[in-house]
Amino acid sequence: MFLSGLKSNFSDTKIFPVYKKRVLLTYGNNQHIAYLLGVPEAYNDAHKIQDHLITQADPGLDLGSHILSLGSGVAYHLGISSTNPPPIISVYLPKVTTETTALNLSNAIDAVNVFVNGVHSVQPDYDQQYVIAPEKWVREFTGATEPSYLEFHSSKENKLRKTLEGYFKDRVVIANTLEQEATLFKVMRSERLVVLAILSFVVVLASFGVVSALTIIALEKKSDIRTLWSMGTSEKQLRGVFFKNGMLIVASGWLVGLTLGTLVILLQKYIGIVPLGSGYIREYYPVQLTIEHLALTSTIVLSIGTVLSAWATRNVALIK
What we know:
Blueprint: H1 2-9, E1 14-27, E2 30-39, H2 41-46, E3 53-56, E4 67-71, H3 72-78, E5 88-94, E6 109-120, H4 124-127, E7 130-134, H5 135-142, E8 149-153, H6 157-168, H7 177-180, H8 182-220, H9 222-230, H10 235-270, H11 291-312
Parallel strand pairs: 2-7, 4-6
Antiparallel strand pairs: 1-2, 1-5, 1-8, 3-6, 4-7, 5-6
Helix pairs in contact: 8-10, 8-11, 10-11
């Protein structure tokens, strides 16, 4: 009743029951322990799993309901690199209610064979741990009557959270994605900051080439500077000339670097330049190019270049 009312009050909210069990997966002589997630079909749409598929079985094949999608890390440990034809793996789950003895070990474990209909790559830590399967057969296989947790998707997170906390009090744990993986996100932010720091340091070093170039130009044009000075050109105007010259050098380097960098990334993404080696799901090292990355890189390069160009032209007027 509460959840029904919640969906009516938050019309854009989607609620997904998730059945989570730790299982043993085997394929040939390979095995790996992972978390089996039983989810409704809408869950895959909400998380856009289809957009993250590395390999997928032929959609025209009727594989039945016993199917699952592997994280790329799980697929690597199982030695699966293709889903055409769809490989069959075994899923093992211990029976919690069974009294295990040396005489009934086989009765203490449930097993089922399923088709692998896809391999997805979302985030390395998740890809190493999770496999996704339809909710129905996971419930039948595990005997679960209630979901392990409910996943809410809403544009009004804060308001929804207050409503849930007000109803459930301390009976349940409510956490968003960031809170669930706080350590992981801290590491990711730290890695990004380190990359930005290295990029900034390299740009600063490279920009000193602009300073040197402006100094050399000023020395070469010493007689011209004297002529302009004697004709009444102000110090501000002289600095402006050399500043524009410096910005032209910076902008040219930025444009060439951005073009070459984008070209290399596109070649790696669609053709493949740097291979990962044998045994990986992906043949080539994965790359991604976003507008945010381009904007951030451009901001860093142009900002540092502008500051150093202004600094380099501060004494140009004194060269007479």
